[in-house]
Amino acid sequence: SQQGEEDPQALSIQEGENATMNCSYKTSINNLQWYRQNSGRGLVHLILIRSNEREKHSGRLRVTLDTSKKSSSLLITASRAADTASYFCATDLTDSWGKLQFGAGTQVVVTP
Amino acid sequence: DVKVTQSSRYLVKRTGEKVFLECVQDMDHENMFWYRQDPGLGLRLIYFSYDVKMKEKGDIPEGYSVSREKKERFSLILESASTNQTSMYLCASSLWGVAVSYEQYFGPGTRLTVT
User: Fold this and answer.
1) Taking CB atoms and an 8 Å limit, are B90 and A42 in contact across chains?
2) A14 near A33, Cβ under 8 Å?
3) pLDDT digits (tens, 9 = 90+) for B97-108
4) Distance from CA of A29 to the nearest CA of B (A)
């Protein structure tokens, strides 16, 4: 079964609104990473948050991590049409030795 | 600019053919990965290599093999393609760390159709 599971599966918002998506996981992690995938393309790394961090920012992105609840959230503020993509969380398990476990992704559509 | 390239963006093969998917990275990364991506299933790891000639099975290695003769190149081989191997194949690379994963850099993907 997948380690990271995103919620919701799909999200439709208008430009200027905020988009929030969540990721839950099952076992201990070293870090959690978020990636973006534009339609039919490869994934692009967005942000990495370590297990001893609670919040991290990068531009319009804000990621939180709650290890007690085994969950993370990605917030995109003031969304743009160019943010239309699928977003994936990936967990680095403590016994993974270099491998990541990806969730099924959240598909975000931002309409002008 | 860092780069991971894959030999084809689209590929159509017949059932039973031997298929080679090539991946090259220019970042001197130790780790390289092959994933397949199917709708609703996310990315599933097929094989992983942490050094030249070293490989490790991922979650779904059946029907696949890999080759890593040089650090920058990681090949995925479908010994006898089947229709259930129709999928998007993604290659990635990353630095090697002791019991920790770093960010992965992905290629553009190869959409393989087996007829």
Assistant:
1) yes
2) no
3) 777 778 999 999
4) 9
